[in-house]
Amino acid sequence: MLVNVENLYKYYNGEALLKNINFTVEDHEAVGLIGVNGCGKSTLLNIITGSEDFDKTPEGLGSVSVASGTAIGFLRQNSGLEGESTIEEEMLKAFSGLIETKEKMNELEKLMTELHGAELETAGAEYAQLSAFFEARDGYNINVKINRVLNGMGFADTPRDRIISTLSGGEKTRLALAKLLLEEPDLLILDEPTNHLDFITLMWLEDYLKGYKGAILTVSHDRYFLNKICTRICEIEHGRLTSYRGDYSAYLVQKEMSSQRQLKEWEAQQKEIQKLEDYVVRNKTRASTAKMAKSRQHMLDHMERVEKPLMFQKPPKITLEYDIEPTKDIVKVSGCPLAVGDGSGRRELLKSLDLHIRRGEHAAIIGANGVGKTSILKLIQGLIPHEKGNISWGNNVKTAYFEQEHSILNMSNTVIDELRDRFPSMSDQEARKALASVLITGEDVFKPVAVLSGGERAKLCFAIMANTRGNVLILDEPTNHLDLMTKEVLEDALAEFKGTIILVSHDRYLLNKVADRIIEVRKDGVSCYGGNFDAYSNAVNAKAQSDAEAEAERKRAAQAEEYRENKAKQYRSREQRAETARKRNRIKELEKLIEEAEINIFRLENEISDPEVSANYGIMSEKCRELEDTRNSLDQMMDEWAELSDQL
Q1: What pLDDT does 197 receive?
Q2: 138 CB contacts (<8 Å, ≥6 apart)?
Q3: CA atoms within 13 A on the CB side of 399
Q4: What is the CATH number that goes with domain 329-540?
Q5: Considering the entire predicted model, what is its pTM?
C-alpha cells in the first residue's frame, strides 16, 4: 500500500468540501479520480502530496499516510517547466543519481590502476557494487530512454539544445510530464494530463502509462483515457468518495447498479420507518400500548439510516438555436497561406489553405499541436491577416465563437455584467436565468470573471454563445476544463444543433458524437474524411495498412531484385575468376614458350655462324628462315604476355 487516507475532511468557510474520505492507492494500480468541477479532486491531490493541510474530526480522527521511501511525482494542472536550461539538460536531471554513480565508477576505474593489495580489493568491491546498481537501473540506456519519451511527447523535431523558457505553455507542460515519466516515481499523480495533447501524443502516452511499473493516480475528464489506463475509478460526489473497480465503462455500470440497490434499500427502510412512526403516534398515549410504543421509538432512535442515493444532479442546460437560415455555401477559403508572427518572427504553417464548409455541416479540424488548427479558425474569421488568396462568407451567416483560452472575456467584469454588456437589452432576471441554465447561480453571478475556474469560464462562454443565436458555431477545444456531466450536455446540444459547426477538438467522444466530417491538418497540407472520428481512424488505419502492405511488397521486390543482382554478380564473379585463372595459366605457358624460343634463337645463331653451315647455301637458307620465324613468334608471345600481365 503506497497511500492510505482515513477519515479525511476539508472545510472551506465552515462548509465541508471533503467529508470522511477513505481510500488507498496500491502499488501497480491506476486510479482515476473523477467528479464535477469544484468537488475537491485537485484539493485531495494537494493533500496527498503534502502541499495542502486537511482537517480532522472533533474526535481527532483523520490521517494521510504514505509508505516509507515512496517517491511521488506530481504534475499539476496547467503546470510546466521553467528556467534557462536546455531540454537535454533538464531531462538528464531525471537521472542525476545514475549520472553521479557513473562518475564515481569512472573515478574508481582511474584509481584502481594505481592501487595494490587490500586497497585495490576494497576499490574493486565498491566498483562492483556501483556497477550492479547502475546496470540494474538500466543506466547504459539513459539517452535511449530520453529520446523515446521526448519523441513520444511530441519533441521529435525539437532541438535538444532548445532553451526551455523559449517554449510555449503547452510545450512546457508536456516537457514537465516527459521529465516525470523519466523519473519513474513509485506513485505518478497527474492532474488533467491529457489537456493540450494531440492524438498521436495522447495515444503514445496511453500506451506508455498502460505499461507503467509504478502506481498512477490521475484526475481526468477524458473518458477514452480513463478506459485505456485505469483499473479503478474513485468518484467524489457531494464531498464523499466512492470507489469502483475497473475502468470508466465499468464504473458507469456499477454506479447504476449501486444506486438502484441503494434506492430499494432506502425505500424499504422508509416504509419501515413510516410504519414505526405511525405506530408510535397511534399508541404512545394509551396506557396499554405506551410501553410498546416506547420500544418502537427506541428502535427508530437507534436505527442506522440508509442514505438516499444521489440519483439526480441537475445538469446544465445548453440550448443552441438560431433565427435565420444562411446560404448553402458558408465559407470558402482559396489559396490562402497560413502564417503566424510578424517580420523576422513570421512562421509559415501552410503554404496554401483551401477549405469549403457547407450549410449544416459539422466539420472537425484535427491535427498535431502547433500545426495551425486554432490559427485556421482565426484566419477564416479575419482575426489574423492573409497576404494572398481569398476568404468568402455566404449571406445571412451569423457566427458565435468559443475561444479556448477565454480571452474574449473581460476579466474585470462580474459574471452577470459580462453577459449584460454583450446583450444590453437583457434584464437582470433574463441574465440570471441564462446563467442559471449553466449552473452559475446565487451570489456566484457577482463573482469577477478573473476568479472563475476554467470550467466556470467555459460555462459562461456557453451562456454567451447560446444567447448570440449564431447559425455558425466556431469552437476551439470547447470541452477543456469541463466535468463529465457538462461534457455530455454539450455533446448532446452540439449533436442536435441544426446549423453549421466548425470545431477544433482533441476530445474523441465529442468528435464521435458531433462531427460528420474530419479535416486533418498536417505540415504538408489538408485531408478530408467523411464521418466521425471512428470513421476517420478506420480510414487512416486502412490507409496505413495499405501503405504498409505496399511498402512490404516494395521491399520484397527490392529484395528479389537484389537477390538476382547478387546471383548475377556471383555468376560474373565465377566467370571472372575462371578468366583470371586462364590468363595466369596462359602467362605461365607463354613464359615457358618464350624461354624455349630464346634458347632456340641462340642455337640457330650459333649454327648459322658455323663455317660448314655457311658454306652450304641450302642449309644456310633454311636456318635463316627458321631463325626469322622464331624471332617473329617470340615477338608475338612477348606482346601477348605484356597484354595479359596488364590485365591482372
Answers
A1: 81
A2: 145
A3: 17
A4: 3.40.50.300
A5: 0.66
